[in-house]
User: What shape does this take?
Amino acid sequence: MTSLSSRTIHDGWTARAASGPAPAEVSAQTLPAAVPGCIHVDLLDAGLIPDPYQGANEALVAWIGLVDWTFETTFAWSPDGHTRQDLVFEGLDTVAAIRLNGRLLGETANQHRSYRFDVGPLLVDGDNHLEVAFRAPVPYANLQSVALGARPRPYPLPYEAIRKSACNFGWDWGIATFTTGIWKPVRLESWSGARLAEVRITAAPEGDGGAVEADVVIERDAADLPVSVSLQVTGPGLDADAPPAAAAPVDGDRVHVRLALAAAERWWPAGYGEQPRYVVDVRLDGDETVDAAQRVVGFRTVEWDTTADAAGSAFTLVVNDQPIFVKGVNWIPDDALPVRVDRARVERRLRQALDANLNLIRVWGGGLYESEDFYDLADELGLLTWQDFLFACAGYPEEEPLRSEIEAEARENVVRLASHPSLVLLTGNNEALEGFEDWGWKQRLDGRSWGAHYYYELFPRVIGELAPHVPYIPGSPFSSGMGWDPAPTADSPSGTQTGPHPLDPGSGTVHLWRQWNDRDWTTYREHTPRFVAEFGWQGPPSWTTLTGSLDDAPLTPESPGMIVHQKAMEGNVKLTNGLLPHFRVPDDMETWHWAMQLNQALAVGAALDHFRSWAPHTMGAIVWQLNDCWPVTSWAAIDGGERPKPLFHALRNSFAARVVTIQPRDGALAVVLGNDTDEEWTGPVQVRRLSFAGEALAGITVQATVPARGSLVVPIDRGVATSTGDESQLLVAEAPGARGLWFFAEPRDSALPAQDLVLEARRVDGGTEVTVTARSLARDVTLLVDKVHPSAHAEDGLITLLPGESARILVRHDGELDARALADPRVLRSANQLVRA
Assistant: This one.
């Protein structure tokens, strides 16, 4: 217990439209309001708006972002003997004036930070009236854009002029919601003497033990109470009856406390070891315990190896002196109404990521600084995290009032996140450095600022002061050696980036989007970068999610609802162009849906197999993207209904601990074995060239040893690797526990037979076990089980079966499932169904 007391102020809130184009039935009402919450949820709960995610309803609710909304409540208070009463808002979305008992407390304009007000002089004994009056975000952003000057961006509305989640204004996968509300908790804190204003904890290994260090900032009232700060650590290997502790008196408002531990277990990423965590209790003591805080830490070292080599310089994540091949995905807000994302939902998503054999989540810069639940779960599960500062794809003004707001949000979020063992990288922005170089910004900026001060000066300074143990790069894509010269030139009046181009493949990170935009996905094999931070391919959501969110009759690839739920520029054109080199475009909707889902999975899977085959030159691939924020055709592996798409299986297969692939090498073909385990992988590698009927045409067997956390390239004899009939032959490479395939012809040009599969099913613990047997060659067999049961998920997919082979697949589901329906060719899918004579 502490003498500081805290109470939430979440009850009794109402909301009303104060001004703007609200419909009459809304303007006339005062609504019950949820806090934390947002106005969309309140309007939905009151039945005053249709579901924005359904059909074409997005346009019907766009007026919400043009309306000023006022939230109010009354709370009781009586004097409690404390000298300070602080009203704390953990998050306001976004531009607001706050009044208590009719007096203005302050004005806010930043979704990404918290606010604290000393309200003691304004509180009255009895009922107190609290009002938060929000300005409409769309007109505010437009006004700020005029005041600050227009900046280049890819979308119409000036999201760069307001400190609000950029994708809230819409993105090429996202609905525009324009949310408003008190989106994080509100509390009244009562205290006397002193309180903990800032607590920064670092945990670092030292020999067999470790050290915990606390940097603490306190706030005092007028009493200037003598206080001290103490640390106590509990966790694996420590004496539970007498936990290690240390203390130091506070002189002024800052103190540093260090505690050495004789024993401390190391925290490891998923797939590399366990994730032991330690609880650090921080106490502020005077005559009694005045305030307290708690952090949960892990002991590990982190660095990014950028050693120069013949190709440029490495970009390799190293944890506890172990190089890590990054198997990553990009993360966007999991709901376009983020207040609906609770801890349980985050855990479902991150456990899906683990099931897909991932080890890193990149939190993209157009979304949010993710929640404590997100980071705590990532720490627990061993999922590494990379957090962008919230700047995406646009030039950002460096002038006031944004300049000070951005420093405040950076300081707060660096302090909040830096103690998490999962956090391995902070990044200045998404694609702004590339945009400045390649998207015509230099001319369009015409000497205006664009964010370079933040990326090259402010963020490194803030991190160096508050969290020097956390690695940082100015942006992604980014190349080692890049810098900034603010001096104007004739070609670039806004200043010049120095050093290599941000997309230099020899160092740093690259984003590869030409394939999706205008090239075939096989051209991923033209690139051997050091690290790929973004690439991806579109596909529609699961059939259940798609049909449940659309009202189109008939439903076609370009029916009205489908177009509303396709946000990418010329998205359907690119889907078609990307499919045609591999399959013909099907005539019926359900087969079109399967073809596009399969092509998405094949595109990303082929890219991942290629990038991984170049380790340790290439040491990471982060797929765009893991999740969706609503039901939409997108690059996601898990759709807006939380259902995995076939792409999920591509991630799971390509990121398996041990993989075998066949890759082009120097004009020939080679087997590449990847071993991401701590044990040597030894055994025969058999390579066979087969006919589609299963006839062995040629083959070799070699003994191979793949080192732990290593790879091996085995050239294939040209006599084996050369087809005598491209349309009807394939290569099969097998090592103990893994198989890789190479088809000489694209499916549309091949002699794949009609699908001929036999399915058997039986109920088992956890779901239904399915056995699929192929009477003839079957490519990429996948069960679209959501069509049979909306909660069902097949653990494996994209399985290629040679004639006579069988595969067992566990289908997990709630309740009962009609096992006979699993054999329906609408459910039991393969690439064979997409090949026509």
